[in-house]
């Protein structure tokens, strides 16, 4: 009988056998056949052989049959043996057609996520080769091609790549490798990240750290005016059917959007106030639904949502706003962004009478002027350095006080007086040091004060300021980098303070004691994990004006000298600052990084990598940027990334972070 069967019929018969009943010859036949199947042709012989032993034959008779739906749990991977299928996603409809030899269903298995699309048969009598999840993971997890590409309408929309370096909690099904987004269209990346949000009935939902990366960098490739509609689009308002499954799917999809929004608000806090589109989106509040009263600032309980959901399409519109209505509260309550910090503005007038003002760090020149003179008066703000080089500041420039060079000062005068301005005497630098006072202070106290202040500046700075700074602030309307500039300026202040104090000390013995004291201060700063000021002090000491004080250095105890030399080695820039990087790798966060190097690294990545790859967002670049800094403040960051909706409100008030340096 066998010899009379055609090859197709023979193969079908073999495939229909239970895998455990296939003989060695059967496996050989299947294996031979797999050589011609596009989806597996690239795999090694041994993998194809293993597949031959586990493939299950599955047929479906009717066009229009739904093989599985978006949001379902993923149990298998499919290869199309005969026929074709449509790939349909919510909100977009038909995005791709897959034909004989192509495969689908790997995404849910690789990411341990729900199905990203619905698969519907395009024709009658379709045949599939199915590999169940466990077999798929066992056989293909490690050998399968490292890249997964998804297409829509013939164009690639998402590229994922296996990364084995990061084996944290989000690992693909049962494995230590995970698939991370390399590139994609902004909308598809968003869709993918939302899919990967895991909802947990205990409220311990996890959000992939990529969501944080996405939110921190979204303005580079997706302005808020695009992000908001895209999120709205991902939020199913209408139920397409009455079945419970669909209602569940919609509910889950909506919860994920709300979670992402919560994350967004937590991450940006008050900075969102400068993003009118986002604020508008988050603040829209339609009239409350009957019986729907949320206590201020509390998220709706899941069952409340369910009730709202079951009311159907129309009311669901209310549900999203109900869920979102507390977000503005959160915006107000995020205290970590000391964005409105007041800074001292010291402005001199031509008559040398100083004006001293406390103004928000991000104040514009226009606002500074109107705080002092009547509107319309012909006054200008000028910055001038100790050499007398002056520059008139534009009315719309902001944060000018933190952007001043160390020997620059602000002056205010009428336009005709600009030429007559002369540098202040104090701009030439101090004539007397404070070595005597410093001598009285304990090095530990000085270091602790430095760290205390640095930590304030450091936490006032928002992560996104680094992104704006590196990618070019002018590209982001309304963006500020004021806190970052202030922090960078601080580095220079400390550095020159050290060098100045040493050089101004006239007495050799006292100078040697001062030098020793600064080495001790550096030591404590390092212990306190304040690498920024540690380096600032060390840079001060390595200033050539200090270095050439041979007699002073000679008087330093050899122990101090040894410590100093060891620290110098940490500053060695060779092999891309290897010594520093090794030292940092051993530190557990939170710590204050050496800011100039962090900015240099970010700039290096920025300049060496394009924002787009084949017209797709180069998301890999975005992630590598945020990876550089996101863990420094970890006390707050890890919580931020994996927050729990219910804890959100309570957390928002303690996000400022524990004063780690006090607790050691
Ligand atoms: P999975 O999420 O397991 O289930 C649906 C499958 O559709 C998905 O894996 C992919 O294999 C396949 N697919 C093909 N194109 C797309 C697309 N553009 N978006 C989502 N899924 C797609």
From TrEMBL:
GO terms for cellular component: plasma membrane. It comes from Gadus morhua. This is Rap guanine nucleotide exchange factor (GEF) 3. Residues 177-312 form the N-terminal Ras-GEF domain. Residues 442-664 form the Ras-GEF domain. GO terms for molecular function: guanyl-nucleotide exchange factor activity. Residues 39-140 form the Cyclic nucleotide-binding domain. The chain holds residues 125 to 788 of 788 of the full protein. Keywords: Guanine-nucleotide releasing factor. One of its GO terms (biological process) is Ras protein signal transduction.
